Amino acid sequence: NAGVMQNPRHLVRRRGQEARLRCSPMKGHSHVYWYRQLPEEGLKFMVYLQKENIIDESGMPKERFSAEFPKEGPSILRIQQVVRGDSAAYFCASSSGGDWAYEQYFGPGTRLTVT
Amino acid sequence: QKEVEQDPGPLSVPEGAIVSLNCTYSNSAFQYFMWYRQYSRKGPELLMYTYSSGNKEDGRFTAQVDKSSKYISLFIRDSQPSDSATYLCAMISNAGGTSYGKLTFGQGTILTVHP
Question: If pLDDT is split at 50, 70 and 90, which confidence band does B8 have?
């Protein structure tokens, strides 16, 4: 399967714990985007990364959230000290970037539940 | 005011009907316009994209963009029960810079096609 892969698909965390969400882009893609979908809301952009670089993090909450896309391995979205309001579906997308940045393909998502 | 407005529906139509889905937007910098389909508890699937104004057809789907009115549409002909899903419009600016990778989504329209 050459599509975007995300794991875990479901993640349950207690308040105060850390959540780590992983994303492997589509083969041949080096640009990764994270979006969050809250209940009853549309998809909201969080962060845009290339290998070893954060290009745009204008949608990331200022505290507790961080993202990385190392030279080797998947992109990671990290949420520290989770709160109930962090419960949502987190989607990763990838593209070839540049003139093809509009053509983003999404993974199946990670559904985070904070208890 | 949201940058992209989309009527959440729900929209219910009989099989074989022509479906019209619409979005309006306020940011004149948007240049690429996409439609995604999202089945329940799945990731968004890219259906079509259009650059600037005009029409684009792909099988039973037709996308229209009217930049002068800041209005985009997706038409589905001969709708099928398998078309039942949430349809999301998305837009992106090609103004360059760090915002280039950011998709801005509408809230999504829930469509049900009943046999």
Answer: confident
